[in-house]
């Protein structure tokens, strides 16, 4: 019998059908990387199934252990408030551990570079290219600080420069960061969306990237992202495994 906890990936949800399609493609890649692991998806809003609906179904089946993994890149309001509130309403028979959000992680930097190279950049152009690290944005100062830290870390891997930008709530906007990199003298400018799936804010990033030479796709089902989901799942399981002496 499979005694591993079910992995419940919690996505934000969107009215844009591309969002759910991308989330499901990522989940399929996760399943392909670890056959035998049961992976379910629940959405906080707009899409079905809801997180609460999935939890109730799992409890009705007799499932006991669940690792709930926020499909989020930073610890902002959804990770700190929305998701814990939903999990508190789960059926009492379920033992739920909330995994960490995905970012920051070196795997995400690898996925960002993958998307830039898929969009036409080459590794030989890295040192002469300025990159806009374009995120959705947040009113949470912790989340904004994390994006700035990621930009600095990524710059130290060999780019001409890396500047953070935000589609909402914070400044600068993508187009402003593109102009800043032009003024800095970078030979070319690329925009790397630090977002997981298409939707309203990623579309705003795309519009702001009109003046760039290269615009990468969203992270989506990049293999590095799928691997990171499994790393977060494993980390959330470890306390229980230690208690069992495994």
TrEMBL record:
Keywords, comma-separated and alphabetical: Lyase, Metal-binding
Molecular function terms, GO-annotated: lyase activity; metal ion binding
The organism's place on the tree of life at top rank: Bacteria
Keyword Metal-binding: yes
Protein name: Sirohydrochlorin chelatase
Family annotation (SUPFAM superfamilies): Chelatase
InterPro entries recorded: CbiX-like, Sirohydro_Cobaltochel/CbiX
